[in-house]
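Sample A.
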Amino acid sequence: MLPEVNKILYCTDLSKNASYAFQYAVYLARKTGADIHILKVVEELSSDERLTLQSYILNQSSREEFLHHRINSAREQLQQRQDYFWEVIAPEDKDMRTKIVGCEVVEGYPTQTILKRAKELDCDLIVMGAHEKGWFHTLLGSVAKNVLRESRIPTLIVPRPEKVATAEPAIQKH
């Protein structure tokens, strides 16, 4: 017997396809009664990037402000995408917003952070979008590919839709 899906970890890179993948997370939550936890990982700066930052921004408080701004900017974008999604979704699906039990932006290494949060939150399913460009290795995206390979829970990688809307993310009404 397959385990029930009670908690879904929806991971976003804030791309158009990520918004499309969110539709699947909402659909699956409706069908299973699961809660959704939203996660955006802001990639941690490499040592070279941190060294460059220290070289060009000598003032420590300015460096910290820059790093803090990266997280805040991702939070704002995530909030805007969520607001837009719930604004244009079919009226009968608007009640699904109550299934969002968490929404966080975390700095870290994407694959490890996604897997760690899935375990900490005791999720039963990970949902994320495929990368937007290229052939298989870039189509899937290295983060999606690594999560798929290393995850010990079912993981749904949503491919790009054939038709991409020109307005905001690829969010379509049902």
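Sample B.
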Amino acid sequence: MIDGTRKFHEQDVEVKKEYYSSDPTARRVRYDSNLHVYKSKGKTANWKDSLIISGIVSGHNEPEVCRKTSLEYINHVIKLEDTLLGLLSEALGLNPNHLKATECDKGKTFSFNYYLACQQAELTLGKHTDPVFLSIVLQDQNGGLQVMCDNQWADVTPIEHALVVNIGDLLQILSNDKFVSAIHRVVAKNVGPRILVACFFTGLLVAPKMYGPIKELISKENPALYKEFQVADYMTEFFSKPLHKNGVDLFRL
């Protein structure tokens, strides 16, 4: 998958521009550059190019240069997510099928990211959480991924053939803070290119599906900490705020 991502991004720009769009609603398979650069309120900006595949992967519209590889990889990641949801349900003291029954696995977005060498790394993407239930991340051996731990940044050292799993904002809300959304960032470097593939599981975006703290986890002693929401509304709020601000606070009671 790392090789397939590199092959797409290192094609001639005339080939890649067929997929280009900065509008996330314009097409299911799109190529974009420096996401959030106009939305970060002057704080930070991304330093990456991204091939983004949203929703169902058909095997027809994806770029031919990485089509076979991406289909195989995505299918494996979806199976892994099913296993993880079962384990996380059990960790909450629930039936293994509970989280899957909420349809939090239905919405999917896959981002194949390519980071060029950056001479002003301090101006690139700062800390953030993911507005999703789970994200599953593959990074190459160049690293750059960091997670906030005990109020300081810790490198997530690349391990060959290993994946990184992040809890996202939406699972923090469903678990009523029993799980905590991972604060993380990807640090730009003055060497490159570096590659990171992220699979985001967003749940159902369409109305009238509502999400909120799981009722089985709520009691008089442990009241609900968040109001119910639709995923589309959460996404709108998340992407209209400064990227470094915490998204879950927008829905906290």
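B remarks: The two ends are 41 Å apart (CA to CA). Helices lie at 2-9, 13-16, 67-91, 98-101, 169-174, 231-240.
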